[in-house]
């Protein structure tokens, strides 16, 4: 936006000569908008907002009890005593003591509320997540403490994916796993090439017999493993199975409402074992009736048409057919994979839920301001508790299942 300001000046040297002096003032429209309409909630403004322990404490009281401390036992919020020396409240009815962090993820934590608030700010606004080592450096705590804080924050979001979608819902599954080792990738590529060569130019076993070449069985004298492998490859009978490390991966099932929210769930460790039994209960649970479900041509989705209006797109021939496509969900899946590849490198199956919840929390609020994303977190901190013992148990439970 340019504003042209004209200033008339009159010179008085013998005759009146109005001359024209023009000045242009450039105002960047974008920055003006940011300043006036959308206040930026940066790290420095966050630190200025919560620069004392008392401010964090007051904010929690405001968020949790709307400014009136309420006894968790009897629900009384009238004239409760405040014990300043211990920073806790005493109920005026039942005389029980309670604190503002009681029953929240901050309960019994030795870490100050200021650090917790900073942790929530960093956790909710980091686009592709934040690793526990980086977190430890920023907060000034040990790595294991940082990891435990992160796990507690993820625990707070456990209800994040418990929503019901409607309208047009795109559905797809994906496999999140670390990349194969470079050696394995090269070996796999070599096998693939050899197989292709034999298919194109080699002889089948029947042809070899017709040509009078005897079948060779067993190991010849002085033959190495490589030579046997080569001979088997040449005979065209050798089928090498490529061992992908599927047991280290997680199958993530995603559902997204067009122009709406995203729901993701883990459904197993092997992408080849995705069946109707693993997929359909989730669809029925998370998608309302009279919705339109769009999938690809995976055979696990064949019975979906009994429950919903179902369209599928055949990815062998086309990716988009009018409004029928699964590009929205594939976009969301790609971002999940990018987050895990770039920040976490590998997530174990039994902790995968936490990472998925963290991702969907940010994804569903990606168009909102940083301040809103930060403040949205506080209602979910109440009524969640995570003890380290339970966290460790999770692995055993998943292994048994
Ligand atoms: Zn009470």
Bound ligand species? zinc ion
**Which sequence of SSEs, written as H and E, runs from N to C?**
EEHHHEEEHHHEHHHEEHEEHHHH
* Order of strands across the main sheet: 8-7-6-9-10
Distance between the termini: 63 Å
Helix segment tally = 14
Spans where pLDDT lies below 50 across 5 or more residues:
1-28, 30-37
Query: What's the level 1 CATH class of the domain at 168-179 and 246-400?
Result: Alpha Beta
Number of strands: 10
Q: Based on CA inertia axes, which overall geometry fits?
A: elongated
Share in helix: 40-55%
SS-based class: alpha+beta
What fraction strand? 15-25%
Structure report:
This protein is of the alpha+beta class and 401 residues long. Among the domains are: 2-36, no CATH class; 168-179 and 246-400, 2-Layer Sandwich (Nucleotidyltransferase, domain 5), CATH 3.30.420. The protein contains 14 helices and ten strands. The protein has helices at residues 29-36, 43-49, 53-65, 113-125, 132-139, 143-156, 182-201, 205-210, 225-235, 276-286, 327-344, 352-364, 370-375, 388-400, and strands at residues 2-11, 17-26, 81-83, 88-90, 97-98, 168-176, 250-257, 262-268, 292-296, 309-313. It has a five-stranded mixed sheet with strand order 8-7-6-9-10, with helices on both faces. The protein has a three-stranded antiparallel sheet with strand order 3-4-5, with no helix packed on it. Helix 5 packs across helix 6 (143-156). The protein binds zinc ion.
